[in-house]
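Bug #77: duplicate submission created two jobs. Keeping one. Sequence:
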Amino acid sequence: MVPIAVLDACVVYPAPLRDLLIRLALAGLFRARWTEQILDEAFEALRSRRPELESARLRRTRQLMCEALPDALVEGHLGLVEDLGLPDPDDRHVLAAAIHSGAHWIVTENVKDFPAEVLADHEVEVRTPDDLVLLLLDRTPDIVIDVIRRQAAALKNPPHSFDDLLETLGRCGLGRAVTEIKRAVRERRDPSV
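Kept job's structure:
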């Protein structure tokens, strides 16, 4: 069974992390889910914090995400929102999407906004992106490392080496995962890195 994870807006926002999570989902390591509201939040944050980014470019990025993972969009979940209790009522739609889609995890940096005791009632767990990548690395290290290699190779403007991308991902909150990836690569004594 391939686990399902709802990606919160805060993990869709940083481009390198978003790209990695989509690539890991495309590799079949988990099934990514999001909603229009999650995408709206992520792309509104991008617009406000990065005004130099053209609206057309942001729309294109959003479109490419949805084309890459056509089954990722969760709909029909909003009827659950009112009955859910979370510290921040604005996060209820994320939990509703998780419940409606049968998700195992909500992937977010805002762990405190999704108390374990509330999520347990719905058989959902909260994971940081670092936790998720560590779990996937533990289960399928070769695939995770290969996905990151391919992600680095795809970066052209500017180009990134594998190590450059790892440093970037570390700054995006994947510190523990990056440490473990580097350790795994050293242990394999892989000369291609």
